DNA sequence: GAGTTTGAAACT
DNA sequence: CAGTTTCAAACTC
């Protein structure tokens, strides 16, 4: 361990300039808060490097501004921003997944991976905030070429391995996160792994760190404890990971390492900044690093040949910084490799692209989007997912569609992620992809809100849609996934619209922020990429009427956050339908009832008659359904019983749907309900597994199912919770409809307060978090 | 698969 | 804001 640490330091020194970045990441400023970082950092502190860093830039607390900018609601036309948070969570997970994406050169910067995406956002922020301090921090000089090459090469492999990362999870849940964090910061650089590769880890790590700091004040301590408890040493884990990377990377030269470091550090910084989790503080320094890295990256990219992901990164960076170069985009086009990765990314890319492009690069975006599309290649066309990507030309336009998806995705991702860990063997990538896509989307969303595609309710949706295709490629599962209906939906809800042209909320696809795809049986459908403009315009229109129109219908309150971990015991009961239902005949016991469908209890917002919602009656008692837990009021008890019954019924009807297993639990995630967003249990699930969905495009569902089945409540990602956009919603909703009032008022408070926080929290759900036992 | 029921969305 | 209409999903047969 120590040796490794030293070596790290040594490297850092070597890289002093750009490398500093890495250090920064690790070091995060706020020691008081982040014990973790602090502890880990201590080693470094003594090192000259540390001093160097300090000298570089004044360490200032990172301002929320960054985040704000990125996610800033203001930027978003409507509430969506609020919702983004949940996505974020998804992002975390996605990061792991991202690796694949990274691999794809085709993807344009952001689109590529969640990690990158995030990075891009961050970059943007940084760029804006910083003046230009050190472009040259990174030393492009260092055999960038090699680094680049490696990076590209590695990525492909990394993807695979990363997918395997599940292993980590299995080993030590918490530790994995932390470990990843460290890796990203420290090891990654040393090993010379590409920044992109680590980015995901870094992000997650940062997230974890965040959690640790925020929730677990004892961050580091916990980690160590975890280590002990699980017997897993995160450091070792890291080292292992690094090893893997090393293996993978055929070319490990120091030079490469250096270059890689710069890149990595860059990403790391970004991720950190974005999330804020790590209170970096030294915004300036980090920024500098970022810039430096970016510049370095660009150079590298130039040097590099085609297919290097670095290029992509560089692009993103440029875009952010505004130094964009058309050339890069061109290069991107050339990039041939990693067909697989591309496939995976596709959708995500599109979304991301759209988002990022819109905001940051119009120019580049065109090219980028183009690339993305290509990457998707075949699939893209069919899938259609979400976002209308316009093409290159209008990347900006295309944009956002994805947002809705993102949101949805977020919710799902976590689950998916987990699932992967458990099941991973077969098609880890797929899941990863899903997650990543979701994450990316989220990230993008925050930034892109404009698009208008608001977050989707279902987690499933987003993730599902996006992912599917890829999945299919990768493994049999994929196939299944495709076949399967998508379960969730996000991907495709398989609407049957006949008169609405799929441009109204009646259309589930449209409502979910996704494009209609093959599986859909709609007529005269305008909800397709081809009609992107129309779709976006319509969305705006609808949003103007009701900003929350595309927001998740089910909101989770802060409580739900259970997540954080350990407390699985608490169950979130707080999830509620944002507007409440108006059921009169169904007794809120059928899917006609949105509350029921969402797996949440009715609330005061509901105007239902004869409410018998098993998840909680509007009358009262909130019933915290939580099965787990705890306190159950009389009512709740009653509900429970009824609930069980209901669940059973559902099962009968929809055997496939796992709902029953965890109906309440996390109905939440923002969205997730037992039934999956739409779950259409009957529809999707059943078919999902066995046969397949028409389109085959979406995969996500299956995963979910599994997730539900396999994952215990505790484990369930709480992501959804964070989703609770409600809070935001409430305030925002101009219509003043009942919308989220309910929740927001009562439960939300904490979450709402800081979107950031929410996001972070949500993210965590990683498998790792849950101790394996 | 067709028809009915239901409640959200949209409209007035 | 309330009432009505439209719409498509959910459900039933």
TrEMBL record:
In what ranges is there compositional bias, type Low complexity? 731-741
GO (cellular component) term, any one: nucleus
Residue spans of biased composition, Polar residues class: 321-330, 375-386, 667-679, 762-773
Where is region (Disordered) located?
A: 318-341, 372-395, 653-773
Which parts of the sequence belong to the CRC domain?
491-616
Where, per UniProt, does this protein localize?
Nucleus
The superkingdom of the source organism is Eukaryota
Q: Name one Pfam family in it.
A: TCR
User: Does Oxidoreductase count among this protein's keywords?
Assistant: no
| Entry keywords, A to Z | Nucleus
Any one GO MF term held by the record is: DNA-binding transcription factor activity
Checking PROSITE patterns in the record gives: CRC (PS51634)
Q: Where is the composition biased (Basic and acidic residues)?
A: 331-340
User: What family does the Swiss-Prot or TrEMBL record give for this protein?
Assistant: Belongs to the lin-54 family.
* Name assigned to this protein: CRC domain-containing protein
Instruction: Tell me the organism.
Output: Olea europaea subsp. europaea
């Amino acid at each position: 361990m120590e040796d490794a640490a030293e070596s790290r330091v040594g490297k850092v020194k070597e890289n002093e300039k750009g490398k500093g970045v890495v250090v920064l990441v690790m070091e995060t400023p706020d020691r008081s808060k982040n014990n973790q970082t602090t502890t880990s950092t201590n080693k470094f502190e003594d090192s000259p490097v540390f001093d160097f860093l300090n000298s570089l830039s004044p360490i200032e607390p990172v301002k929320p501004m960054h985040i704000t900018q990125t996610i800033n609601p203001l930027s978003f036309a409507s509430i969506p921003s609020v919702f983004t948070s949940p996505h974020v969570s998804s992002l975390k997970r996605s990061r792991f997944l991202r690796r694949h994406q990274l691999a794809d050169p085709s993807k344009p910067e952001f689109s590529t991976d969640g990690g990158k995406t995030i990075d891009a956002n961050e970059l943007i922020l940084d760029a804006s905030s910083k003046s230009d301090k050190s472009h040259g921090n990174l030393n492009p000089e260092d055999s960038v070429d090699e680094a680049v090459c490696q990076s590209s090469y590695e990525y492909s492999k990394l993807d695979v391995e990363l997918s395997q990362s599940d292993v980590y999870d299995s080993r030590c849940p918490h530790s994995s996160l932390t470990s990843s964090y460290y890796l990203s910061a420290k090891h990654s650089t040393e090993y010379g792994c590409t920044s992109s590769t680590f980015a995901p880890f870094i992000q997650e790590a940062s997230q974890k760190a965040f959690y640790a700091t925020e929730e677990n004040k004892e961050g580091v301590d916990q980690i160590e404890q975890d280590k002990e408890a699980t017997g897993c040493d995160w450091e070792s884990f890291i080292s292992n990971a690094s090893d893997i990377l090393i293996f993978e990377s055929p070319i490990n030269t120091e030079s490469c390492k250096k270059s890689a470091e710069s890149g990595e550090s860059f990403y790391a910084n970004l991720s950190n900044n974005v999330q804020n989790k790590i209170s970096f503080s030294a915004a300036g320094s980090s920024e500098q690093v970022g810039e430096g890295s970016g510049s370095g990256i660009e150079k590298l990219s130039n040097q590099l040949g085609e297919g290097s992901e670095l290029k992509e990164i560089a692009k993103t960076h440029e875009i952010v910084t505004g130094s964009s170069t058309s050339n890069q985009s061109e290069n991107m086009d050339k990039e041939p490799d990693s067909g697989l990765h591309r496939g995976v990314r596709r959708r995500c890319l599109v979304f991301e692209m759209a988002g990022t492009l819109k905001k940051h690069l119009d120019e580049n975006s065109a090219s980028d989007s183009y690339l993305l599309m290509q990457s998707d290649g075949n699939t893209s066309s069919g899938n259609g997912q979400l976002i209308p990507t316009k093409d290159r030309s209008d990347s900006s336009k295309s944009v956002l569609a994805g947002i809705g998806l993102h949101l949805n995705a977020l919710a799902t991702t976590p689950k998916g992620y987990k699932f992967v860990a458990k099941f991973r063997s077969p098609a880890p990538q797929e899941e990863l992809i899903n997650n990543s896509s979701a994450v990316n989307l989220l990230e993008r969303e925050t930034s892109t809100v404009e698009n208008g595609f608001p977050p989707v309710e279902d987690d499933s949706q987003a993730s599902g849609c996006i992912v599917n295709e890829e999945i299919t490629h990768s493994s049999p599962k994929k196939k299944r996934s495709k076949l399967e209906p998508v379960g969730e939906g996000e991907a495709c809800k398989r609407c049957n619209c006949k008169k609405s042209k799929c441009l109204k909320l009646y259309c589930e696809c449209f409502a979910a922020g996704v494009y209609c795809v093959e599986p859909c049986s709609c007529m005269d459908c305008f909800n397709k990429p081809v009609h992107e403009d129309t779709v976006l315009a319509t969305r705006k229109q609808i949003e103007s009427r009701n900003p929350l129109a595309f927001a998740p219908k089910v909101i989770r309150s802060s409580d739900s956050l259970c997540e954080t971990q350990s407390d699985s015991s608490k169950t979130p009961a707080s999830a509620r339908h944002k507007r409440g239902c108006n059921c009169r005949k169904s007794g809120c016991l059928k899917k006609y009832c949105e509350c029921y469908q969402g797996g949440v209890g009715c609330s005061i917002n509901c105007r239902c008659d004869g409410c018998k919602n098993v998840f909680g009656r509007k009358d009262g008692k909130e019933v915290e359904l939580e099965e787990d837990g705890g306190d159950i009021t009389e009512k709740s008890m009653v509900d429970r019983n009824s609930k069980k019954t209901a669940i059973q019924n559902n099962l009968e009807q929809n055997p496939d749907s796992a709902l029953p297993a965890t109906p309440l639990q996390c109905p939440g995630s923002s969205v997730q309900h037992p039934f999956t967003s739409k779950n259409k249990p009957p529809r999707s699930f059943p078919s999902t597994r066995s046969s397949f969905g028409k389109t085959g495009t979406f995969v996500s569902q299956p995963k979910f199912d599994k997730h539900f089945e396999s994952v215990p409540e505790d484990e369930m990602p709480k992501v959804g919770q964070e989703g609770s956009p409600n809070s935001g919603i409430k305030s925002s909703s101009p219509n003043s409809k009942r919308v989220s009032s309910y929740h927001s008022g009562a439960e939300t408070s904490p979450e709402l307060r800081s979107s950031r926080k929410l996001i972070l929290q949500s993210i965590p759900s990683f498998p790792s978090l849950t101790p394996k036992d």
